[in-house]
Amino acid sequence: MADVVSFRKEERTGLVRAERSGPVLRLTLDNPPANVLSIALMEALGAALDAAAEDGTVRVVVVASTGNLFSAGHDLKEMTAHRADPDGGRAFFEKTMRMAADLMLKIAGLPQPVVAEIDGLATAAGCQLVASCDLAICTDTSTFCTPGVNIGLFCSTPMVAVTRAAHPKQAMEMLLTGETIDASTAKDFGLVNRIVPRQYLRQVIDKYASVIASKSPQALRIGKAAFRAQAGLPLPEAYDLAVATMVDNMLADDAKEGIGAFLGKRMPEWGK
């Protein structure tokens, strides 16, 4: 692993470039020109996320990409080549879609918050990847779409993530029309949190990630899991889960330390 700067380390694993800056792990899709989610790239990204989940020193994960496209989604050339298989491609299509779904579930279940950094087009499964992340920040020239209907293929798997990030009617608009929306519309729809000029994207992402990473790692893990779990529950059950979570959180070491530090007017010293 080669040093990039004194506190920053970077390594390339297959089609994903990993870079550490203190407690922040940056995973960059490096599959130009379109950063398609091929089998190989999804395997590499999944392995990097697995490693992050086991690393207690990682507090925030950023998912970025190289080039002018965030991700064009699945590798249609790779998939089309398997139409010549004896089963017409069914087994390979199932493998591709299952792997993508498992990757999105891995992001949702990751203990650490995951921030998408988007500069360029995020389409189909690339848009699904953005919607699956906990937070998303994009440049003012970024665009988003779920264009499957344009080629006779409804974006059913991207639909799952997009309908959980955007308002249902706005998500359906994207899915039915296949039209590309700009960054401002994506923010209105709920797909992204913030829009920044391209020249400031990395600066804003680094600041955003460092602020989150400065918080209690126990609270971040507990909070993300509870947020994801309560979102699909009826209101009474959601509150039942939240009450139990809050009680467990109050008993955690970081809560004792954080409250003690607040009352003692000092900076907290978080655990792992």
Automatic annotation (TrEMBL):
| Similarity comment: family membership | Belongs to the enoyl-CoA hydratase/isomerase family.
Q: Which PANTHER family match?
A: ENOYL-COA HYDRATASE DOMAIN-CONTAINING PROTEIN 3, MITOCHONDRIAL, PTHR43602
Coiled-coil regions, chain positions? none
* Name of the protein described by the UniProt record: Enoyl-CoA hydratase domain-containing protein 3, mitochondrial
Query: What keywords does the record list, in alphabetical order?
Result: Fatty acid metabolism, Lipid metabolism, Lyase, Transit peptide
The terms under GO molecular function for this entry are:
enoyl-CoA hydratase activity
Query: Briefly, what is this protein's role?
Result: May play a role in fatty acid biosynthesis and insulin sensitivity.
